[in-house]
Write a structure and sequence with these properties.
Elements (H helix, E strand, L loop, with lengths): L9 E5 L3 H12 L4 E5 L2 H10 L5 E5 L7 H10 L5 E6 L6 H7 L4 E4 L4 H12 L1
Parallel strand pairs: 1-2, 1-3, 3-4, 4-5
This protein binds magnesium ion.
Magnesium ion binds next to loops.
Length: 126
């Protein structure tokens, strides 16, 4: 599914679970987006610092080394113009407040479906 809006956009996938990471890459590689990957919150910050022009971060919440909340907060402190979307397994169970106060623009609840993910990324970049 090629996407005019996602084509050549830089998307950073932050996910520690390898099969989930492969799954997200598989969905998004068909859109023509440029995909980057990080496995924990510190790696995500390093990637954002090292690679210019990242448009969207798809950030898992439960991550080793540094969790998604802390990582998102620190990335926000860099003052870059990018969107951060949380991927959460918890749905609406009290994590919402944390998500909204940590600097995320939006969230998506796992399990993540391809159509829903692409739609969300498109509306986020529109
Ligand atoms: Mg995780």
């Amino acid at each position: 599914m090629n996407s005019e809006l996602l084509k050549d956009k830089k998307i950073l996938i932050v996910e520690d679970d390898l099969s989930s990471r492969l799954y997200l890459n598989k969905i998004l590689e068909r859109t023509g987006a440029i995909l980057l990957n990080a496995g924990d919150g510190i790696e995500a910050i390093e990637m954002v610092t090292d690679v210019p022009g990242i448009n969207v971060i798809l950030m898992d919440i439960q991550l080793p080394v540094m969790d998604g909340y802390t990582s998102a907060k620190k990335i926000r402190e860099l003052g870059l113009d990018l969107k951060i979307i949380a991927q959460t397994a918890y749905g609406l169970s009290g994590d919402m407040e944390n998500i909204l106060t940590s600097g995320f623009d939006d969230y998506i609840v796992k399990p993540i479906y391809s159509g829903q993910l692409i739609e969300m990324l498109e509306s986020c970049l529109r």
